[in-house]
Structures are given as structure tokens and as C-alpha cells.
Task: inverse folding
């Protein structure tokens, strides 16, 4: 019985929240957000949550700061309404790439977000494929770090010509995850030695470890932002003799002119998940979107019922 389970959504990705609720066979919680003329936000919970186990689904997507503040206000409103436990579900964690102090006098903003979530009222956090696993350590409340990579693996496992495929890590930081991806598909791995020059977000591939000649290269990463890393890697492996290039990433951030770059790139297909909503202007025949709703729903059900969430990784 899950009579005391409730799922709410901020305004960032209500379609995902509704899909999660469909898997859980419960209605989406009623709430609404008002933006005043002075740009202030008000969130009102429109149903009783006293003594309930509540989950709030809100990924980080444009406008990022507005959605973060909306999430914090919603958490605080639920706490004030006497919810027994509040879990913040952040399929794409806010400010996740600001995970270290790599310049003088800057904030480690991912840690700050962890503090804000706890202060606002979150008793638990669920996230998917953090850019750096250590971000989970910033949270002082219990947390579950899910991965959607198995969803991507299952999509490509159906291909009949996997013997001609090779998984490509676009940089050294992605080698471990790419190796796991390749192992589950039963294909070899190659690694692009990528270097950044200057303060821009573009990177240049300078060397390849492994063999891609005559093979279909599958570049894997946790997210695609401007597209610089994966597009540079795609062009590089094509120059190295790859017959074709596909890309699989969890989070389709697709910022700046990423879509224009992808459309004119040698990438044949880009497979992503719906941790972040994909607006109409970012949709393209090259892009396939896989849903994480079932994964999130299962994590919510297991958390609510007191069952193991780690079994989802087996």
C-alpha cells in the first residue's frame, strides 16, 4: 500500500514527473508556482501532505537558477506542511560541473547546492549520473546515485552488427565508464587523447589509443553541453578511418550553438535520455530520446518501501 506516497513536480520537467507517476500508478501531486511582477516566486502545495512520504522531481535546465530556487521553495513549503520525509529527485543535479576549486576565489557550487537542498528541507536526494561521483559526497543527507547508462546499453545491444562496433571514450576522464559500456556490449574500446587550450570550452583531439578503422564508433559521455568534446572526437575518429559515428550521452544539455554544430557534424545519431526536457528547437531526426521514468519510479518505490536501491545496479 502506498497511500502515503506523493510525487510532486516543479516547472522544469512536468512530463517526466507525470511519466514517473504513471509507472507508480499514482496521480501527480497538485501544486502551482506563481511568478510575480517583481520576479519573486511563490510555490503553493494544493493538497494535504501531512505525514506523507514526498518526492519532488526537478532537474536542472534553463533557466537553471530559477528552477533551483523553485525547488528550494517547494522543499521548504512541503516541510512547513508537515511532510514526514522529503526527497529531492534531481535527474540532472544543479551546478554539477562546479565540483572543484580549479581557480582562485571561486565557489564549489555543487557543494553549495547540497547545503541548500538540506537547509530547504530535503531529507534525501536522488540523482542520475553525476558529472563527478564525488559530488555525492557533498551531500550530508542520505542519497542515491542512479545511472541511466544501462538504458543506453540496452538500446544499442539490439544492433545486429555489434561485431563491427567500438566504444570510444572522448577523453581520459571517461575511460572507466566507457570501459564498462564496452564490456556490457561485448565490444572493444578506444580512447581519444583530448587537450584543452586556453579558457574556451573547445577541446582538440591529438592522439588515439585503440583501433577504429573500418568500425562503427560509439562515443559515450555523461552529458553533451556545447558539443565541442564529442564533435571533435567524432571528426577525429572519422579521420582515423571509422566508418560511422554514433554518440550516447545521459544528459542532453545542448547549450549555445550545440544543435547547429551537431547537425553539420559527422555524427549519424545522438542517443540521449529525458533527464532534461528537449524543447522543440533542439529536436532533430539525428536525436533519439530514451526515458528514465521507469528507473526513477523504481528508485522511488524502493525508497518508499524500504527496499534496496543498489539492486537496480545489478
Result:
Amino acid at each position: 500500500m502506498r497511500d502515503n506516497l506523493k510525487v510532486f513536480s516543479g516547472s522544469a520537467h512536468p512530463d517526466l514527473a507525470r511519466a514517473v507517476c504513471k509507472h507508480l500508478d499514482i496521480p501527480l501531486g497538485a501544486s502551482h508556482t506563481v511568478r510575480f511582477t517583481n520576479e519573486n516566486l511563490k510555490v503553493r502545495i494544493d493538497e494535504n501532505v501531512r505525514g506523507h512520504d514526498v518526492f519532488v522531481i526537478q532537474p536542472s535546465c534553463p533557466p537553471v537558477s530559477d528552477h533551483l530556487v523553485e525547488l528550494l521553495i517547494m522543499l521548504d513549503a512541503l516541510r512547513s506542511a508537515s511532510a514526514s520525509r522529503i526527497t529531492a529527485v534531481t535527474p540532472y543535479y544543479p551546478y554539477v560541473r562546479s565540483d572543484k576549486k580549479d581557480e582562485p576565489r571561486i565557489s564549489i557550487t555543487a557543494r553549495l547546492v547540497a547545503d541548500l537542498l538540506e537547509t530547504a528541507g530535503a531529507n534525501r536526494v536522488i540523482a542520475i549520473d553525476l558529472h563527478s561521483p564525488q559530488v555525492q559526497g557533498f551531500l550530508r543527507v542520505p542519497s542515491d546515485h542512479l545511472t541511466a547508462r544501462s538504458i543506453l546499453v540496452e538500446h544499442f545491444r539490439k544492433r545486429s552488427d555489434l561485431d563491427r562496433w567500438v566504444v570510444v571514450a572522448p577523453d581520459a576522464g571517461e575511460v572507466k565508464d566507457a570501459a564498462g559500456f564496452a564490456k556490457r556490449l561485448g565490444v572493444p574500446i578506444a580512447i581519444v587523447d583530448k587537450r584543452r587550450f586556453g579558457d574556451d570550452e573547445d577541446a582538440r583531439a591529438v592522439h588515439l589509443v585503440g583501433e577504429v578503422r573500418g568500425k562503427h564508433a560509439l562515443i559515450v559521455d555523461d552529458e553533451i553541453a556545447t558539443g565541442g568534446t564529442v564533435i571533435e572526437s567524432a571528426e577525429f575518429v572519422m579521420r582515423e578511418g571509422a566508418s560511422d559515428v554514433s554518440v550516447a550521452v545521459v544528459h542532453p544539455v545542448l547549450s549555445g550553438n550545440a544543435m547547429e554544430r551537431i547537425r553539420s557534424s559527422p555524427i549519424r545519431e545522438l542517443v540521449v535520455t529525458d533527464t532534461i526536457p528537449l524543447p522543440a528547437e533542439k529536436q532533430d531526426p539525428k536525436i533519439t530520446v530514451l526515458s528514465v521514468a521507469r528507473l526513477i519510479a523504481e528508485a522511488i518505490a524502493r525508497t518508499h518501501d524500504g527496499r534496496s536501491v543498489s539492486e537496480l545496479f545489478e
User: Anything to note?
Assistant: The two ends are 26 Å apart (CA to CA).
